[in-house]
Design a protein that fits this description.
Length: about 550
């Protein structure tokens, strides 16, 4: 919609223009009026006017003088000139001022709307051109960074073809032989926490903020281009470009600037991060090796010594990092057996012992990542074998820990251990649900177990873990079915068996005590007396006499 300003000292003419104009058809939303040039200029300064209609003969400031001001101060404002004088001087100024049309009084409907249509068409064409220009610039500004990102990623994964992309090489400084490059990998250790607390869970907004900070801080000495890693959303890749510098200078400057950047990230955004700096290189294609060294530096950071942000520039791959993680070595079958038996306490103990073993030595971020990934694969397999349905498990998830409703942030070995233990709890809960759904619980199974294994150290927690039920629920069911509690029943079975064994004169009371699972003879004797109000020796004597 457009707004038109009529500047004319004659009210009848202004009214005629209002009546004759096809304003609706021309998409004109408002027609304003001014009685002279001064008032017209005031309205132009206050209002957003799209088209002005100017009478050439007005008191004070003439139309010719007004056109000169418009040409100077509003060069893009289209104007239609109205005059009752077919005078060359007026016409010459109108032509000089590039007016849209020149109308003679008296105004008729056809000429007026033709002139107005010409002006509106000019405005529309101008808006289309401006829109196309803006869109081209937006597209260019958005596509150039994306193009550079794709080029760097193709170099990193070694799929870049120089001949095919030769025209784009200047975009990344590959056409300048004086340029030196280095890749940096930055890992946010508490990304989930920061993303939720400060970025409304928008990971793209977080990446944008961090990349801008990295580019700005590193840009003091380098041209820095930062972008999110497509394989791991808590990682950003930074490509540093420096002109005409020695490799040693790049290494020193990059270490200094990344320490500065990580300190700023922690102070301003609360992000705890580690960064690995790759080896400086002179050829653009060597960025792939620099990136691999940076990635290895991050993976080699010792989780035990990590305190806040950290920059690593040791590009050597740590020995054994790609080997099997030893923490669960020799424990996998034990873990499987515990899960099959429903021994959740045993499963937790096995994992806890493995984690304790890891805390006794250097343990890197790379090892932690690998152990979490392999533990999830292992537990997925066990869970499927024990009846958990596939949709309940993070089988093909990009972020399996988050699928479990857990945060995969860890900036210390304690936090890493918590992720492992919480992940185990997730799988135990899934197995519990599957087992309870697939196998109906029989309280008689507990009675049968006690009848056959009365000599063991029997605890209610054993049955709670095995059947994935609460101890209170099991105790209630047992008492309803058999008229006594589980501990009471265990004691009854042991005491009945004790009388049976005491009837055999060939067995010593010490042997009987051990056969019944008591700690020692005295403890057995005390329990027997409390139950029968007679000692084992007195019972044996009475049996002989009877």
């Amino acid at each position: 919609m457009y707004r038109v300003l009529i500047i004319d000292d004659e009210e009848p003419l202004r009214e005629a223009i209002r009546i004759l104009g096809d304003w609706k058809g021309l998409e004109v939303s408002e027609v304003l009026e001014a009685t002279d040039g001064k008032m017209g200029l005031e309205l132009l300064a206050q209002q957003n006017i799209d088209l002005v209609m100017v009478d050439m003969k007005m008191p004070g400031m003439s139309g010719a003088e007004l056109l000169q001001v418009l040409e100077r101060d509003y060069p893009d404002l289209p104007a239609i000139v109205i005059s009752g004088y077919n005078d060359f001087e007026y016409t010459r100024q109108a032509i000089r001022s590039k007016v849209v049309d020149y109308l003679l009084k008296p105004i008729n409907r056809l000429d007026l709307n033709a002139a107005l249509r010409k002006a509106v068409d000019l405005l529309e064409a101008r808006r289309v051109r401006e829109s196309e220009f803006i869109n081209r610039n937006i597209t260019l500004n958005m596509s150039l960074p994306k193009l550079k990102e794709k080029m760097y990623l193709s170099i990193i994964d070694r799929s870049f073809r120089s001949q095919t992309n030769e025209a784009f090489l200047p975009l990344i400084g590959a056409d300048d032989p004086d340029n030196r490059f280095a890749a940096v990998v930055l890992r946010m250790l508490n990304m989930e926490q920061v993303r939720k607390a400060r970025f409304h869970s928008d990971v793209d907004l977080l990446h944008f903020a961090v990349a801008n900070m990295l580019n700005e801080i590193a840009g003091e000495y380098f041209q820095a281009f930062s972008f999110a890693s497509p394989k791991q959303d808590r990682e950003l890749i930074v490509i540093l470009t420096m002109k005409g510098a020695y490799q040693e200078d790049i290494a020193y400057r990059s270490l200094h600037q990344m320490n500065k950047a990580l300190a700023a990230l922690q102070e301003l955004l609360g992000i705890i991060a580690v960064a690995g700096i790759g080896s400086p290189c002179t050829a653009i294609m060597e960025i792939a090796s620099s990136y691999e060294a940076a990635k290895a530096s991050v993976s080699g950071v010792d989780l035990m010594r990590l305190k806040g942000y950290h920059v690593a520039s040791n590009t050597a791959q740590k020995a054994g990092q790609d080997q099997e993680i030893p923490l669960l070595s020799g424990r996998v079958q034990l873990l499987r057996t515990a899960l099959e038996a429903g021994n959740t306490a045993g499963a937790r103990t096995i994992v806890a012992e493995a984690l304790k073993k890891g805390s006794d030595r250097e343990f890197t971020l790379g090892e932690a990542d690998l152990m979490v990934a392999r533990f999830i694969v292992l537990m997925n397999d066990f869970s499927l074998e024990l009846g958990v349905t596939r949709e309940k498990l993070p089988l093909m998830e990009e972020h399996p820990v988050r699928f479990m409703g857990l945060s995969d942030d860890f900036a210390s070995y304690e936090q890493f251990s918590a992720i492992m233990e919480d992940a185990l709890s997730f799988y135990l809960e899934q197995i519990r649900h599957a087992q309870s759904a697939n196998r109906p619980f029989e309280i008689g199974d507990i009675k049968a177990y006690i009848d056959n294994r009365y000599f063991e150290d029997i605890k209610i927690s054993m049955f709670a873990d095995k059947y994935f039920l609460s101890r209170e629920y099991i105790m209630k069911l047992f008492k309803q079915q058999f008229g006594c509690g589980i501990h009471e029943y265990v004691q009854r079975v042991r005491m009945d068996k004790a009388k049976e064994l005491l009837d055999d004169p060939g067995l010593k009371i010490q042997d009987i005590s051990e056969m019944l699972g008591f700690k020692d003879k005295n403890y057995f004797s005390k329990a027997f007396r409390n139950y029968f109000s007679i000692s084992p020796t007195e019972y044996r004597t009475a049996s002989k006499e009877g």
